[in-house]
Design a protein that fits this description.
The chain is an all-alpha fold. The chain is about 70% helix and about 0% strand. It has 10 helices and no strands. Helix 1 packs antiparallel against helix 7, helix 4 runs antiparallel to helix 5 and helix 6 runs antiparallel to helix 7. The longest helix has 27 residues. The relative contact order is 0.15.
Length: about 250
């Protein structure tokens, strides 16, 4: 157990070092030019905006599930990382919808902040379940602050004319790899712990769809890769909700 924790700490320190040692990269202006710019019902970029509804549905459903006690926790305090996770998911719907109405760096802040809330709180939840409840809860606020700092640093550098999105990009990669490492190295105190692999798979599909935004839109001009990315990412959040709904305390732990 101790040696595995050393690896995770070393990975965390390496990620922090990379965030500040890698060459600065500004947010590319073309990032905001999405394939499907069609408006409908007076809403600009309609499908990229309304496809965020999935986040709101999952976020509110997850909050209902966790706060009403419909999923078991060995200690009540373990609910709070998931409460914050689903708040982050619900806020992603609002932030991303706001951003896609008029995409630019200033609005992108409100898209990225909720995503960091979701990422970092899910890591804290897994640390609580796989390493120690006190450790996970103690790390919840520092991890959230680290997520906020990555977005705040990025937009501050953009406003200063020397944009650097690298720390945010490193944080996103760190969050995904940390969740994978926790799932692989530490058994959960609950059943369905391996469901996080499906969460990772859905997230990976979302990133692929995002990459091929224009290519997919070119196939008949029906729907863009970015619109589908929102749906895939919402499914990743839904898989977390499903895990909580179906799981039970692991008697063999």
């Amino acid at each position: 157990m101790a040696s595995r924790s050393v690896y995770l700490i070393a990975f965390t320190l390496l990620s922090v070092a990379l965030a500040f040692l890698l060459p600065a990269v500004p947010q590319p202006a073309e990032y905001h030019r999405f394939a499907d710019a069609r408006g409908l019902f007076g809403v600009a970029n309609f499908l990229d905006v309304v496809s965020n509804a999935g986040f709101l549905i999952v976020g509110m459903g997850g909050l209902l599930l966790v706060l009403t006690g419909r999923t078991p926790f060995e200690r009540e305090s373990e609910r709070w990382p998931y409460v914050i996770f689903f708040i982050g998911v619900a806020l992603t719907a609002l932030g991303s919808g706001y951003y896609h109405l008029v995409p630019d760096n200033e609005r992108l802040v409100w898209d990225r902040l909720p995503m960091t809330i979701a990422f970092m709180s899910l890591i804290a939840a897994q640390i609580a379940e796989r390493i120690g409840i006190r450790t996970g809860l103690a790390l919840l606020v520092p991890m959230l602050l680290m997520g906020f700092a990555s977005v705040g640093y990025w937009i501050a550098t953009e406003r200063a004319g020397a944009g650097n999105v690298v720390p945010y990009a490193v944080l996103q990669a760190y969050a995904v790899l940390m969740l994978l490492a926790l799932t692989a190295l530490y058994p959960s105190r609950y059943t369905r712990g391996s469901d996080l692999y499906w969460v990772f798979a859905a997230y990976l599909v979302a990133k692929v769809l995002e990459t091929f935004d224009r290519d997919l839109f070119a196939l008949g001009h029906l729907v863009s890769g970015h619109t589908l990315k929102h749906l895939a990412a919402a499914i990743a959040s839904l898989l977390v909700l499903r895990m909580l709904l179906l799981r039970r305390p692991n008697q063999g732990h």
